[in-house]
Structures are given as structure tokens and as C-alpha cells.
Amino acid sequence: MAIICGPILAWISSLLIYGFGQAVDDLNFIAGEIQSKNQNKQSVKEKKRIKAIATKLKTEDFDQECYVDFACPLCGEAISYTEEQIKSNKVLSCPECCEEFYVKDVFSV
Ligand SMILES: [Zn+2]
């Protein structure tokens, strides 16, 4: 069954793919036509859209800044710093007791 059906199915699917390809080509052509007519309008719109996405990404990046919670080695209060601050500073100061401590005392970086 599979031996007989195989080639027939392949033939039918190749016809379908060809037909589909044609349709996609036609659509691309139509889309291209529409786009060239609205190009000026569209590019301004597109720029605005890209700008909006860029702004959104920036705020999301800010929101996603990774905070690390840990206990102050001096007073034991729970404090948090961003991963960035922890990586780029050797010494941090605790906002609770205002004492400075070495990052390496808390994290084995
Ligand atoms: Zn402290």
C-alpha cells in the first residue's frame, strides 16, 4: 500500500506545493504593489513602530535588572543590589547600617 501510495502522494503534494508557491508569489507581488503605493506613509508608521518597540525594550531591560537579595554581613539585615552593582564593585555599603563590606565576603565571585 505504502509503495503504491508513496509516489502518488509525492506527486500530489508536489502539485500542491507548486500551487501554493504560485499563490505566495502572487501575494508577494500584490503586497509589493500596495507597499510601493503607501511607501511614504508606511515608512513613517514603521519608524514610529520601531521606536515604540525600542522604548519598550529599554524599559523592560530596566525592569528585568536582576536584583540579588542577601543578608548584610555586618548587621544581618536583608538588602538587595543589582547583579551589575555586585559584579562591578569590590565594596558595597549596606543601606541599613551604612557600613561597607567586601563583595567577596558575601559572594564567592
Ligand atoms: Zn548592614
Any descriptors?
single chain, 109 residues, two-stranded antiparallel ribbon, 65% helix, binds zinc ion
- Tell me how many strands there are: 4
Query: How far apart are the termini?
Result: 65 Å
Query: Which small compounds were modeled alongside the protein?
Result: zinc ion
The largest sheet has its strands arranged as 1-2
> How much strand content do the residues show?
5-15%
* Rg calculated over all Cα atoms: 30 Å
Mean pLDDT: 82
Low-confidence stretches: none
The dominant shape is elongated
Largest sheet: 2 strands, antiparallel
Question: What letter string, H or E per element, gives the SSE order?
Answer: HHEEHEEH
**What is the chains' assembly state?**
single chain
Alpha plus pi helix count: 4
User: Helix/strand-derived class?
Assistant: alpha+beta
Give the count of structural domains: 1
Helix content: 55-70%
What report would you give on this structure?
The chain is α+β, with helices and mostly antiparallel strands. The protein has one domain (2-106). Helices cover 65% and strands 15% of the residues. It contains four helices and four strands, in the order ααββαββα. It has helices at 2-37, 39-63, 83-88, 103-106; strands at residues 67-71, 78-82, 91-93, 100-102. The strands form two sheets. It has a two-stranded antiparallel ribbon with strand order 1-2. A two-stranded antiparallel sheet has the order 3-4. The site of zinc ion has 8 residues, from loops. Zinc ion binds at residues 72, 74-75, 77, 94, 96-97, 99.
